[in-house]
Design a protein that fits this description.
The complex is a heterodimer of chains A (281) and B (118).
Chain A (H helix, E strand, L loop, with lengths): L2 E8 L3 H8 L9 H18 L3 E6 L14 E4 L3 E2 L14 E2 L2 H13 L5 E3 L6 H4 L2 H4 L10 E7 L9 H16 L6 E7 L16 H13 L1 H5 L3 H8 L8 H8 L4 E9 L6 E8 L2
Chain B lengths: L2 H6 L9 H6 L1 H9 L3 H9 L1 H7 L4 H8 L3 H6 L4 H11 L3 H9 L3 H5 L9
Classes of the chains: A alpha/beta (281), B mainly alpha (118).
Chain lengths: 281, 118
């Protein structure tokens, strides 16, 4: 039977991808970030050994534009291309999917009243790409895990509520546990933490709020998920509203969780965070 | 600030809701087309014709001409899309952001914890 074996929250900032590609791992400004991910990368490789990763992200006009932007969209393919966002395609291998597992998820989630957009093709932009090479080692052609991309609309309001995202996570857990194969599943929620990229308040960042978030999402996720978008954006910035994607991950975990690792770094305009959780129930 | 933005009531912030998205649709559609190199070349060769093709309003065209990123935001432009316009014209994220804050690039960078992490 399927089993959720790890829950990860991670930021997805384009500058991290650039730093990775330009091999700035030992650059003084970037080393703290890369070092911060190392323990989790080791934990995932040596202990978690996931077969499949459900990665929750948002697209930034790469696969979907505003002409038709889904609220929730699930990849159901056997492979996913690395997209060119207009700045050149990143030197990462394309991703293997798991169509049979995706199909199972789609069937269960729709029967569970989550009416997802289902995608046979999905090119993946930095929303998806940023965290992957920091969490799993790859070579020029292959990744050690299969992936299932799950898109959430966090760019055009109305966004789904935090509670809806949390419930989607709970439904994912039920679906995974109903999967007949012995499949080990990691769930990664991306985005945030605080940042604002528009208006006179560009560059707003709230380190205190971010640090509380990393604790509260463990201890009182339902209270956190009940915050309105306005409440979250006032504290965490307009684009910080995307933190709701972490609730999909948290909802997929058990009521109580064990913290494996946490890391926080706010060098420029985004509170860059990593949180690794284990189920404790 | 429009009525819908007053509803959000977050100072210095433009929440990209459906009203703003509808208002800025032509800008964002044009900017998103600039992810392709041939379109970037076409834009650079004749900005006016390119903007006309996407049906930008005169106000929106003027904001593009002036590289006025705050005005473009107020008229419905979304940074995720107009970053591609910025890249076409040689304006990076932090240059755009500093301008929206009413600061020089250097002033803005001096407010950051680790300005080397760009």
């Amino acid at each position: 039977m399927g089993k959720i074996v790890a829950g990860i929250g991670s930021s997805h900032v384009p500058s991290i991808g650039r730093a990775y590609d330009q091999q700035k791992q030992t650059d003084p400004a970037w080393q703290p970030l890369f070092d911060g991910y190392e323990p989790v990368k080791r934990w995932l490789a040596e202990e978690v050994k996931a077969d499949v990763v459900i990665l929750v992200y948002n697209d930034h006009g790469t696969e979907f534009f505003l002409d038709c932007y889904p609220t929730f969209a699930l990849g159901v393919a056997d492979s996913y291309a690395v997209a060119d966002e207009g700045y050149g395609k990143r030197p990462l291998p394309d991703f293997p999917g798991d169509a049979a597992f995706s199909e199972h998820l789609a069937n269960h989630l729709v029967a569970d009243e989550f009416d997802l957009t289902l995608c046979q093709e999905m090119a993946l932009d930095h929303g998806f790409l940023t965290a992957m090479p920091l969490l799993w080692d790859h070579d020029d052609t292959a990744w050690p895990v299969k992936v299932v991309p799950l898109l959430v609309n966090v760019i055009q309001h109305p966004l789904p509520t935090g509670q809806r995202c949390y419930k989607l996570g709970e439904a994912i857990r039920r679906a995974v546990e109903a999967y007949p194969e012995d499949t080990r599943v990691a769930v990664v929620g991306t985005g945030g933490l605080s940042h604002q990229l528009n208006g006179e308040r560009f560059g707003h960042i709230n380190e205190e709020w971010d640090k509380q978030w990393l604790q509260r999402i463990q201890d009182e996720p339902r209270e956190l998920a009940a915050l309105s978008h306005k409440e979250v954006m006032t504290e965490a910035g307009a684009e910080g509203g995307e933190v709701i994607m972490w609730f999909v991950m948290r909802g997929a975990m058990t009521e109580r969780v064990e913290e494996v690792h946490r890391f926080y770094y706010a060098p420029m305009t985004t509170g860059m965070a990593l949180l690794a959780l284990n189920n404790s129930d | 600030m429009s009525d819908t933005q007053e509803r959000w009531g977050i100072p210095g912030t433009y929440v990209f809701d459906l009203a703003l998205s509808r208002q800025g649709y032509a800008i964002n559609k044009m900017c998103n087309s600039l992810k392709f190199d041939e379109n970037r070349e076409a834009f650079k060769a004749d900005e006016e014709a390119y903007m006309e093709r996407y049906g930008l309003s005169e106000e929106q065209k003027q904001a593009v001409r002036e590289r006025d990123w705050l005005r473009l935001t107020q008229l419905g432009g979304n940074l995720f899309f107009f970053l591609k316009l910025g890249a076409t014209l040689g304006y990076g994220l932090y240059t755009i952001g500093a301008q929206m804050r009413g600061e020089s690039y250097e002033q803005f960078m001096s407010t950051r914890n680790v300005p080397g992490a760009t």
